Amino acid sequence: MMNKKQFPREEYFAPGHRGCAGCGASIVARMALKAIGRDTIVVNSTGCLEVFTTPYPETAWKVPWIHTAFECAGAVAGGIERAIKALKKRGKYKGRKLVVMPISGDGGTADIGFQSLSGALERGHDMVYIMYDNEAYMNTGVQRSSSTPLFASATTAPAGKISKGENNPKKDMAMIAAAHGIPYVATACISYPEDFMRKVKKASDIEGPAFIQVLQPCTVGWGYSTENTIKIGRLAVETGLFPLYEIENGDFKITYKPAKRKPLKEYIKMQKRYRHLTDEDIEILQKNIDEKCKLLGLE
Amino acid sequence: MVTIAAIIYEPGSTTKNKTGSWRTFRPIMDNKKCIKCENCYIFCPEGTIYEDENGDFKINYDYCKGCLICVNECPVNALTSIREEK
Ligand code: SF4
Ligand code: SF4
């Protein structure tokens, strides 16, 4: 295996885009496209990624790409998939597998785009839905979403004298997607590129809907310096806060097991959105994680 | 002039925008130390680290924003950083 290139060298995501230095969302897009390759059709609902990759008349995408409103990535992707099927019947795209890849943030997935996504999953459209999860509405200025974790400060859930920031636990989108009984669901994190890219590739080979929730730290919204994007993602996984798994035809499998789970405090202390937390608060969060990890068999 | 349906016909055209001017720190690659683990290559949010004809990784400073993820993720300190001089 000497000198074998680990990662494909083809680039389908161009530089010059307006993502912040150290942006996790660009890493998601770049890796996902490397995993699937050029026969990808991207359906991008409103959000950071859409805005910073397409300052008109420029685009960072080197594959077909369409912008949709926040609400309808699932619906538009479903329509494209049916159109491809119809064209194939008429003899187009012979021998090619075109992959429809809706990609939306946590707001576009867990909140505003939820119903069209749920409809698309239930109808069984062949697609690879990617939820790039940075745990708030970063594009418009860090407003909380239903994917914002407990006690994280956001501009619409600010920490202060009375409030500890977000007061609801993070919505579990991967499990909600799994409840639709679709053939493939996975969680991933940009800090584990082999794992993430393998899952994207697998999802693209599977017939029917696949849903991948990928965690990507955000320098601005989480409050840390740009070089730590990958490090913080790794800590989210190593602490057990964001477990990496896949559910294939109903079979649940952990795909990465930390040798020994790190204390959550290491993760919390690196981010300004958590700087108001006391040791007791962190203890509450740690207990929540311990319980969840027990359920998933991640002791 | 806006095109009909705001269609953009030129793929990857953000390359017209040289984001290298954003940098306050500059990553420097020492190819003698590099073990080609590909960490910097895959983690760069700009995709601005490339392989030259000898198979060595190089940084395209036209687009590098100086986030220093590459420096942070290099296991053998083949990447270091200096302050950018204008
Ligand atoms: S500093 Fe950031 S943008 Fe520049 S080469 Fe390194 S990872 Fe890429
Ligand atoms: S991270 Fe360091 S060792 Fe790995 S390829 Fe880049 S420069 Fe070389």
TrEMBL record, chain B:
Cofactor field: [4Fe-4S] cluster
One function term, GO molecular function aspect: 4 iron, 4 sulfur cluster binding
Pfam family, one: Fer4_21
Coiled-coil region(s): none
Key words of the record: 4Fe-4S, Electron transport, Iron, Iron-sulfur, Metal-binding, Repeat, Transport
Record-linked Gene3D superfamilies: 3.30.70.20
Listed InterPro entries: 4Fe4S_Fe-S-bd (IPR017896), 4Fe4S_Fe_S_CS (IPR017900), PorD_KorD (IPR011898), Pyruvate_synthase_PorD (IPR053389)
Residue span(s) of domain 4Fe-4S ferredoxin-type: 25-54, 55-85
Highest taxon of source: Archaea
Complexes and interactors: Heterotetramer of one alpha, one beta, one delta and one gamma chain.
Name recorded for this polypeptide: Pyruvate synthase subunit PorD
Record lineage: Archaea, Methanobacteriati, Methanobacteriota, Methanomada group, Methanococci
